[in-house]
Amino acid sequence: MLSDWVVMPTCLPLVRRRCHACASERFRANGKFRVNANHKLIDAWLLVLCTGCGETAKLTVFERMNVRSVRPELLDRLHDNDLGLTAELLQDPVVRRRNRIALDWNNAWRLDTGGSDHLDREVADVSVSFAARIPVRPVRLIAEGFGLSRAEVERLITEEKLVSAVRLSGKVTGDFTFMLKR
Description:
Elements: E1 2-9, E2 14-16, E3 26-38, E4 41-50, E5 56-66, H1 72-79, H2 83-91, H3 93-98, E6 102-104, E7 109-112, E8 123-130, H4 138-146, H5 150-158, E9 162-164, E10 176-181
Helix pairs in contact: 4-5
């Protein structure tokens, strides 16, 4: 029987970027946007606050775009300070590359295993899906899901009692499956 696990965000991740005021490297997004129109051109920024000094920084969503080329529902979401849009934009690789930022997912996600019925099975077949692109080590997920130490999970991999089509030693952000034989 296949168990379904889900890696879910619990809050917005921190934004990793250097603060020009205090040299801190973490910013917190609170879902606030700034939109500025100049004639037919429009700019939009996501505002983030430094966790060290509280200084506000702007992450560019778009610059100097023709107002007519921006979807009306996107404009409405920007004006409404939509928290869902904040999460979408932080996940967007174009926005992250344009602003030279990375995301810090520490303490911003949880693993939902759907119960403990998988713990006592001789062979556990597990499908892991991600509600957001959260980089996590599969070894950590498996250890947390089965209540094992990471060293024990590493030993199971070495003994080929834990197998998967993906490499279990690095970080993954996409869905994968694995099988654990006891």
